[in-house]
Amino acid sequence: MGMKLPVSTEWVLHCATTLAQLEPGATASAAQLAEYYDVPAPYLAKQLQALVRAGVLAATTGPRGGFRLARPASDITLLQIVEAIDGASSPYECREIRQQGRGALPPEECRSICVLAEKMAAAHRAWRDSLAGVTLADILTELPPSAPARTRSRLSALR
């Protein structure tokens, strides 16, 4: 199965990181971000709106409208961004096949959670905890020092 996140998860992680590099109060439009990353603008705009609904981004309307972080980069975790797009549910679904077929266990042996489902749930929690422990501010500290200025100049060239 693999933990397959939607392709748009990569887009919004990068877009949020890009917005975190702007001057305070500055915005970027969905069209600018779409051109910056060469992704389809209408689809990207939908994903950015999901981040607005989740309180990660703020949107302003009008001719100079666009998106910016809704709160400081230090208050936005990668988990919040990922879950805005992909939801919070585990990719593993236990269908209790231990109670099916020739190998079916008696119900009294199935009163507690299946050990495999338990291990998969623990792995999902660990994955979420890991993403919850990383903020956009943390990401910015790992970018080359020249990155924000370059990002701003390339993005503003797309107005």
Characteristics:
single chain, 159 residues, mainly alpha, Arc Repressor Mutant, subunit A, 2 strands, two-stranded antiparallel ribbon, 7 helices
Tell me what the structure shows.
This protein is mainly alpha-helical. The protein has one domain (7-156): Orthogonal Bundle (Arc Repressor Mutant, subunit A). It has helices spanning 7-20, 30-37, 41-53, 78-86, 115-132, 136-142, 147-156; strands at 57-60, 66-69. Strands 1-2 form a two-stranded antiparallel sheet. A hairpin with a 5-residue loop joins strand 1 (57-60) and strand 2. Helix 1 (7-20) packs across helix 3, helix 1 (7-20) runs antiparallel to helix 4 and helix 2 crosses helix 3. The longest helix is centred in the C-terminal third of the chain and has 18 residues, at 115-132. The chain is elongated. The mean pLDDT is 92.
Output the CATH topology: Arc Repressor Mutant, subunit A
CATH superfamily: Winged helix-like DNA-binding domain superfamily/Winged helix DNA-binding domain
Structural class: mainly alpha
Profile the largest sheet.
2 strands, antiparallel
The CA-CA distance between the termini, in Å, is: 41 Å
CATH class label: Mainly Alpha
User: Which stretches are low in confidence, meaning pLDDT under 50 for 5 or more residues running?
Assistant: none
Helix content: 40-55%
Oligomer: single chain
What CATH architecture label applies? Orthogonal Bundle
Radius of gyration: 20 Å
Number of strands: 2
Strand order of the largest sheet: 1-2
Query: How many distinct domains?
Result: 1
